[in-house]
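re the bet — no i am not wrong, look at it urself. input seq straight from the record:
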Amino acid sequence: MITSQQYGLLSGIFFFGYALFEIPSNLLLHRIGARIWMARILIMWGAVAALTGFVYTVHQLYLMRFLLGLAEAGYFPGIVLYLTYWFPQREQARAIALLLTGFPVTMILGAPVSGLILDHVHWLGLSSWRWLLILEGLPAIILGFLTYLVLPSRPADAKFLGTDEREAIQAEMGREEQQKLKERHYSVLQAIASPRVWHLVLIYLGMTAGTYTLTLWGPQLVKSLSSLYSNSFVGLLVTIPSMTGLIAMIFVARSSDRMMERRYHVAIPAVLGAAALFLLSTAPAPFYSIILLSVLALAVCSYYGPFWAIPSEFLTGFSAAAGIALINSVGNLGAFAGPYAIGAIAARTGNIRSGLPGVGVSLLICATLVVLLPRKARAATS
């Protein structure tokens, strides 16, 4: 039996391995190409996830979670970097939000499927939680091979585009790159040391703490509402917040691109998420808890598209690869701190809701920091 504190550590130790290889991974993607590198990430990620289903001690589980982080390192910042090769600034929040619809869609489809596996799959004498890991690791392996076969690394490699379309995309992206280089050319080391990049790191710390509180503790919060809830029923209830987040994600990103405004499209959802967390700590009724979880999902799904459109306003090429990876890797330590703190507090108090206000405070700090950003990130030293 794993304690709440051990669960929090297992949820977060993944991000130490993830952070360790994040920047090298993104630099390699920019040099080698997305087709090969993203395929490598997916295949290794799926293999380690599936092998985790065969561990027998909590320390083996700690090790596999760490290795899973190493395997996945560079996936998300690599995708964000990849999208900057294809989409100009005026379309980036929408492009990133469309990519991230996979997050709530995974919750909508994955939570019920996971519940069914936990309740009904006990094949070959293996526990259901082992089959959950094995079966959910296989799609990443399959999609990794498909990625290698079909993904173009750059617009110039896209056979599904006509010559005029490829040239138009390359010309527009080239103009944007030259404009950023006129303001300031960042080297990799300058991007890593940039105060503006570290400002974004601090913002992202709060964002990820809120997000992973929802994803890692949301099902536990729902299950704690009643001992009569089966894993399958909990999985169905968790889809309600996820559907809310999916809808909000698209609308907020479209608004951000249309207005070419990023700060308040991040700050307002962060404040809403903080309010939901504060209220969740004192709302035991199932109906209100589901509503508040939906508000939290709306918040944490909404702010990613506008946020990830900010770094590419002043970074390009290898500096963008390094800066985006740094923001994601260090910022994702919030995904360790938030869940682990909730687990530690739950172990002391016997109530997993006791740690939610602390994560709410981190979202309020995040909202304050993002409002302090300039209207548009400039390359001037700041």
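see?? The radius of gyration is 21 Å. told u. also DSSP finds 18 helices and no strands in the chain. so pay up
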